[in-house]
């Protein structure tokens, strides 16, 4: 670009105008947002105060309060935000414009993100936090057809047929037979032991081969990158939850800890085994699942308590199983952020494959565990209301993992790959896109639901908690 030797006023104004907020149509697929800021910057202080007073009045506040807002940037932010809501209110039938303005006036940020011609953070913040995005996404999709809803409901765990239903102690409203405890113990524990054995042998080393660990600072960089990628790739859905993690100071890296160096409690061990017990118990690769044969019903608290106690006794009564359980705990990622805990990451490199392959797997795990922190609490609560809880608890998480991880792979550059592979020894192998979801049947069922309801409904429900969009009951 050539700059004039003797710049004129028009040249200077062109530079100024280039960096000012512009009127445009912002694409937030599947939505389009009108951005009309008006010529706010040329308003006098008196004119700005008058407009602010009008906004305060519509929002149900005392107009005189507008005079107490003296910070120039905050005053402009309110005008820009109110304009944005005003020009888009009719795009969402029934949108409560007054309620949105009331929230806006009552929650003016101390350090606001200002509008910019080549960025969208301002629009995401205003439209997300005031509820416009959530309302717009819900209005953009049709009601889930009954056939699709029934197909999805069957994948969450249909009740047994009437011929197998029983009543009496242990039954659940006459829908499931009582639990056969001995059959569950006899069939489930060997499958679970086999699962733990197969997991442990993946970490075997040749004699004399030293353990290698990933550097914490490298995992921290990946964690922050994963959060940034999620924020970009999951829009506008991530911003549709006005009080979600991206708006409330969520810092993924601050939540993670070294799982490999952590000694678990008995409670920790059993909780981890419960997850795998569901994987083993719902496995249908050789016929009917153990849970079906034993009449296990995850919606019955007595059944869940029995399973938990059975696993506790298993690892306390067998030293070998306890050792395997501890090793499993230290070599599998986990997320207890929703319960006030942290996100555990495995720092040890696997030695049965190139370190770079092990790193790509770690990156996928980092994305998976982050997705647990993004799911809406209303959605998470559905886990106890379906007979296949792992479809929601892990299967849906795998769908989100695929969205973010595959974007990281598809859009990687030589420079970003170098950063992601920091600390890795040996040749860097190419990553493999995630096509098959983990957690066996639970992942497969979640993927089928994703296909049935579509990406828009799925991501909206996951982020906003509007679970009816994916065939669940909000009651």
Automatic annotation (TrEMBL):
Compositionally skewed regions (Polar residues) per UniProt: 162-176
Region (Disordered), start-end ranges: 154-178
Top-level division of the source organism's lineage: Bacteria
Protein name (record): Uncharacterized protein
Organism: Sphaerisporangium melleum
Lineage: Bacteria, Bacillati, Actinomycetota, Actinomycetes, Streptosporangiales
């Amino acid at each position: 670009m050539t700059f004039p030797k003797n710049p004129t006023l028009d040249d200077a104004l062109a530079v100024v105008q280039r960096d000012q907020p512009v009127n445009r149509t912002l694409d937030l697929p599947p939505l389009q947002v009108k951005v009309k800021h008006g010529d706010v910057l040329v308003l006098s202080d008196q004119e700005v105060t008058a407009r602010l007073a009008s906004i305060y009045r519509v929002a149900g506040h005392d107009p005189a309060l507008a005079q107490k807002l003296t910070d120039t940037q905050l005053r402009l932010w309110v005008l820009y935000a109110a304009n944005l809501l005003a020009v888009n209110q009719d795009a969402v039938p029934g949108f409560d414009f007054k309620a949105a303005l009331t929230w806006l006036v009552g929650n003016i940020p101390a350090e606001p993100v200002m509008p910019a011609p080549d960025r969208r953070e301002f629009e995401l913040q205003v439209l997300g936090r005031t509820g416009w995005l959530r309302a717009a996404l819900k209005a953009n999709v049709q009601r889930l057809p009954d056939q699709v809803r029934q197909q999805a409901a069957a994948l969450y765990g249909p009740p047994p047929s009437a011929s197998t239903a029983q009543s009496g102690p242990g039954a659940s409203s006459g829908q499931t037979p009582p639990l056969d405890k001995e059959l569950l113990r006899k069939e489930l524990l060997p499958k679970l032991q086999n699962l733990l054995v197969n997991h442990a042998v993946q970490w075997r080393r040749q004699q004399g081969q030293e353990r290698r660990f990933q550097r914490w600072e490298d995992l921290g960089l990946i964690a922050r990158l994963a959060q940034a990628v999620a924020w970009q790739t999951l829009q506008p859905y991530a911003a549709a939850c006005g009080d979600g993690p991206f708006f409330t100071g969520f810092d993924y890296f601050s939540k993670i800890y070294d799982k490999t160096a952590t000694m678990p409690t008995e409670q920790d061990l059993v909780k981890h085994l419960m997850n795998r017990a569901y994987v083993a118990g719902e496995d249908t690769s050789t016929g009917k699942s153990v849970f079906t044969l034993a009449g296990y019903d995850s919606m019955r608290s007595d059944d869940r308590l029995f399973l938990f106690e059975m696993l506790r006794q298993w690892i306390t009564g067998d030293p070998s199983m306890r050792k395997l359980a501890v090793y499993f705990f230290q070599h599998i990622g986990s997320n207890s952020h929703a319960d006030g805990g942290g996100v555990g990451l495995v720092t040890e490199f696997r030695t049965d494959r190139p370190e770079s392959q092990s790193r790509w797997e770690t990156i996928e795990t980092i994305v998976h565990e982050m997705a647990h922190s993004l799911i809406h609490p209303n959605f998470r609560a559905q886990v106890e209301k379906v007979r296949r809880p792992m479809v929601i608890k892990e299967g849906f998480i795998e769908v989100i993992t695929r969205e973010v991880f595959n974007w990281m792979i598809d859009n990687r550059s030589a420079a970003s790959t170098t950063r992601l592979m920091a600390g890795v020894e040996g040749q860097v192998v190419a990553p493999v896109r995630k096509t098959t979801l983990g957690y066996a049947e639970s992942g497969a069922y979640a993927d089928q639901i994703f296909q049935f309801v579509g990406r828009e409904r799925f991501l909206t429900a996951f982020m906003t908690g509007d679970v009816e969009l994916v065939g669940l009951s909000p009651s």
